[in-house]
């Protein structure tokens, strides 16, 4: 029974977070900003106001595929947000610009996350190999190595949280101080950003739960030795 509850938790938490962000975005994508600016224009305005003239704003592909690339110094906005005039698009565009501002200011958590990328990738791809070998052969050393590799990915997920929350905070400060959204629009934009943040919280929660489960299994394996 406990095993079933565990799998329901790790399956339902991300699904709930994704459903929430999609429904919230869909709702406020129908609400136009009073400024009438597109997501591209809003992103460009915030970048220019912060002296980031070298950062490009381009149209990306796919629904909610918005992101900032620190290597190419590019803010990519999904088609609807790039061309649209909605509060949801404004919030997302400002959030991605928030990452560009973090990059320009060498925000510590962002730098740390970038440094962890190769380690987290290796950990995520290799951990299950060692975990499975350790489990089937009862070699606790191999299993522990798998846990350590997975822990690197969990740390990456946890470091992502302050990065994303800080980008959202910067986004709200920028669009409000520059007068890009007004009055009720501010509350709507916060709802969009909060819903998006929940996807990262959900991912981190699932990662921590899975890591704790593996630690308990490892403890049990040691007890059998």
From TrEMBL:
Transmembrane intervals: 115-136, 143-163, 197-219
Keywords annotated in UniProt: Membrane, Transmembrane, Transmembrane helix
Pfam families: Zn_peptidase_2
InterPro entries in alphabetical order: Zn_peptidase_2
Domain of life, source organism: Bacteria
Designated name of the protein: Zn-dependent protease
Species name: [Bacillus] enclensis
